[in-house]
Amino acid sequence: MSAVACAAVLLTAACGSSKSDSAADDAPPSTPRDQLVLSDTEFPAGVTKMDLPQDKIQASLADANSYMKNATLTPEECRGAQVDLAAASKDMLAKSSMVAGATNDMNVYVDIVSSQVLDLKPMIDNYAKCAEVSTTADIEGDTIDTKVKTEKLKVPAALSGTDAVAYRSTATNIISGGAPSTRTSYQGWATLRGTTVGVKVSAISGTPDEATFDKFFTDAVQKVKNAK
Fold this sequence. Notes:
The chain has 228 residues and is an alpha+beta fold. It has a single domain, classed as Protein Transport Mog1p, Chain A (3-Layer(aba) Sandwich), CATH 3.40.1000. It contains six helices and nine strands; from the N terminus they run ααβαβαββαβββββα. The longest helix is centred in the N-terminal third of the chain and has 17 residues. The radius of gyration is 17 Å and the shape is globular. The N terminus is likely disordered.
């Protein structure tokens, strides 16, 4: 999956915790939104910044939504929630600043800050009911079978007091009956100070380091929390 596609399907779920006790801490940052995402030097070591044009991201989201509507999906009752999550992601990204980077072995890191505050509860409910979903679709003459398993993770301890969530997803793809390929990704959301912070770490093959994801997620949220 391309870096643009990885960013476009940043969909996750979560559980909330207590809110900040300080009204001042809850005020939206005055810092411009594009300065709230992590800078090049704040990404993990070995990650090089990538270009993610906003128009291509929106086009990728439209493709993902169309794919979900037209694919055969099991269990079928999960279709509506999946389509709704794709639509919510599209709306959020239209009001977001985003940066991304990748390592030499193509572990992709994405950080998003949106001025739209997401309601995380529908996402929580979706992944509780649809932790394993299978799809089959025909794309450009190929039949693509995909099975995705999503597992809830503990939110990093440093994010205590923030409405935050984290998940690990494992996707196995088979194209036209070929050999299966498996991709693992970590995703996190947090809502604070009138913003939504979303991060994703995905691997083209293998599994990204979970501790690195935890720090990346924490750093992204703390930057918004500490901003002026």
